[in-house]
UniProtKB/TrEMBL annotation, chain A:
Pfam families: ABC_tran. One of its GO terms (cellular component) is membrane. It comes from the Bacteria. SUPFAM superfamilies: P-loop containing nucleoside triphosphate hydrolases (SSF52540). GO terms for molecular function: ABC-type transporter activity; ATP binding; ATP hydrolysis activity. Belongs to the ABC transporter superfamily. Gene3D superfamilies: P-loop containing nucleotide triphosphate hydrolases (3.40.50.300). SMART domains: AAA. Residues 26-245 form the ABC transporter domain. InterPro entries: AAA+_ATPase, ABC_transporter-like_ATP-bd, ABC_transporter-like_CS, ABC_transpr_TagH-like, Bact_Polysacc_Export_ATP-bd, P-loop_NTPase. CDD domains: ABC_KpsT_Wzt. Keywords: ATP-binding, Nucleotide-binding, Translocase, Transport. This is ABC-2 type transport system ATP-binding protein/lipopolysaccharide transport system ATP-binding protein. It comes from Melghirimyces profundicolus.
Automatic annotation (TrEMBL), chain B:
This is Transport permease protein. It is found in: Cell inner membrane; Cell membrane. Signal peptide: none annotated. The chain crosses the membrane at residues 28-53, 105-129, 141-168, 211-230, 242-263.
């Protein structure tokens, strides 16, 4: 049984030159194009099985976050289809889904409500989220005063507690401190073992070898290869090395 | 259409609660504080337009402050919902970029929290009328829930439109602020609507007076006025007596569905352009 089926997914972005009505009318009068198109995802297809841990690896700008946004419904694809079986908890980039002006406590309740938890369930998971994040002292401070590490803690703690079947984790652990990272990796293994589906984007490849089963290499919006995790990481690193050598040689 | 939003009632409750808490700061004084603006404006308009410019002609002696407030309170409901509605999406960019949920919840909760403000504020107008010994017309008062519903749907239609437009074009906010000012003067708030038809008014205005009622907000405000001042209610059209009200209901329904459709359509790119 698949948790995620992505078929021939393509997404173009429009990069607007001027995001105002004034700009709109000026380019209308001048008869020029208002935006240039850019292909962020190009014919991407893959499947993630239920209970599997899956990694997406690729350089900056490869389209990893865009892919996650399409999977979680934030962005609509131009063509292709996405099928999701289960509830998705997306943890996309830093400060995932946190409202700056609200306190940590309010953000927990807000996010729980967004993911459809009822009041009783919210009160049940609230203390667990606070405990896991280790932010008791700052829980009534507005999130705008949080460091990026603190936001990552809060975001991660929320995502793993909202009763999701599929958890998408995008580079959120890049900023946490060592101890918390360790705790998160341990938690991810625990989540995987409990039968939930994990999809992870990370620049620290080493922990992925331990957590993930398979990986997808993404380059400029296109799938390069899909396969067993260690194989894929080796391939990705080899390519990077040869690319670097080429650059040095040139 | 609204049914799928019921899944998110906990979220809507949270957002409305947050909005009201910020405004009231958990106190009754906070509620009166939100009335300070319309009450202050009432005093200013009474002094400037009631005494200095004499816009009160056509109203019973001393009734001008009540007339102003009876129009200003519904107008404030509309004005605040639309102005805050403009920023309902763009002000929540950090959330919209990272999680998905029906985004019409933002303008909708903005409307609900302003509605929660409006109802006790309008009750205060009724109290003021009783204190001032101004008769309240029960037959019109019975229609109050209908008036509020009509205004709420009209307001939501406008708020949906401006909220999503403001994501695509950031200067929509300035234009909305300017238009709302003009719109207020096109509604019978600081002047009695009977001035349009009075004999000393410019004949051109008298001839075109019927066009005035093409503005749904003018009709809605006059409906509220009718509770206290029957002669300032929505005038009967010579051919079809309830024409302006029927027209306003139709415009509201069309606007609401058009706004909903456009919101849905433009919503598709909100996650990336915001
Ligand atoms: N909302 C957007 N509008 C326009 N271009 C975007 C948008 N989001 C991402 N992009 C572009 O799409 C490409 C892929 O971005 P992203 O998915 O964030 O890459 P990654 O997460 O792999 O580093 C980048 O070139 C980026 O500039
Ligand atoms: Mg990224």
């Amino acid at each position: 049984m698949e948790a995620i089926v992505v078929d021939k997914l393509t997404k173009h972005f429009r990069r607007a030159y001027d995001k105002t009505l004034k700009g709109f009318f000026i380019s209308l009068v001048k008869g020029e194009k208002r935006y240039k198109e850019f292909t962020a995802l190009n014919n991407v297809s893959f499947k993630v099985n239920k209970g599997e841990s899956y990694a997406i690896i690729g350089k900056n700008g490869a389209g990893k976050s865009t892919l996650f946004k399409v999977l979680s419904g934030i962005i609509h694809p131009d063509s292709g289809s996405v099928k999701i079986n289960g509830k998705v908890a997306p943890l996309i980039e830093l400060g995932a889904g946190l409202s700056r002006d609200l306190t940590g406590a309010e953000n927990i309740r807000l996010n729980c409500a967004i993911f459809g938890l009822d009041r009783k369930r919210i009160e049940e998971v609230y203390p667990k989220i606070v405990e896991f994040s280790e932010l008791e002292e700052f829980i009534h401070t507005p999130v705008k005063f949080y460091s990026s590490g603190m936001k990552a803690r809060l975001g991660f703690s929320i995502a793993i507690h909202i009763d999701a079947d599929i958890i998408l984790i995008d580079e959120v652990l890049a900023v946490g401190d060592k101890d918390f990272k360790k705790k998160c990796y341990a938690k991810m293994e625990e989540i995987r073992d409990s039968g939930k589906t994990l999809v992870i984007v990370s620049h620290s490849l080493k922990p992925l070898r331990k957590i993930c089963d398979r990986a997808l290499i993404l380059e400029r919006g296109q799938v390069v290869d899909i396969g067993e995790i260690n194989e894929m990481i080796d391939k990705y690193q080899d390519e990077k090395k040869t690319n670097n050598k080429k650059k040095k040689g040139a | 259409m609204l049914a799928h939003l019921m899944k998110y009632k906990e979220l809507m409750y949270f957002l409305v609660h947050k909005e009201l808490r910020i405004r009231y700061r958990n106190s009754l004084f906070g509620f009166f504080w939100t009335l300070l603006e319309p009450l202050g404006l009432m005093v200013i308009y009474t002094v400037v337009f009631g005494y200095l410019v004499n816009l009160n002609k056509g109203l019973p002696e001393g009734a001008y402050p009540l007339y102003v407030l009876a129009g200003l309170i519904p107008w404030t409901f509309f004005n605040n919902s639309v102005r805050k509605g403009t920023k309902a999406l763009s002000g929540n960019a950090s959330l919209i970029k990272k999680v998905y949920f029906p985004r019409e919840i933002f303008p909708l909760t903005m409307l609900i929290s302003n509605l929660v403000n409006f109802i006790p504020a309008f009750a205060l107008v009724l109290v003021m009328a009783m204190v001032m010994n101004q008769p309240i017309h029960g037959d019109q008062l019975a229609l109050l829930p209908g008036m509020i519903l009509l205004q709420a749907f009209f307001t939501l239609g406008v708020a949906l439109l401006v909220s999503v437009l403001n994501v695509y074009y950031r200067d929509v906010e300035f234009i909305v602020n300017l238009l709302m000012r003009a719109w207020m003067y096109l509604c019978p708030i600081i002047y009695p609507m009977s001035r349009l038809y009075s004999r000393d008014t410019d004949p051109v205005v008298q001839q075109l007076a019927d066009l005035y009622w093409l503005n749904p907000m003018a009709v809605i405000i006059s409906l509220y006025h009718g509770i206290f001042f029957p002669e300032q209610g929505v005038p009967a059209h010579p051919a079809v007596p309830g024409l302006w009200i029927i027209y306003t209901i139709l415009v509201t329904i069309i606007l609401f569905f058009a706004a909903w459709y456009l919101f849905r359509k433009m919503n598709r790119r909100v996650g990336e352009v915001i």
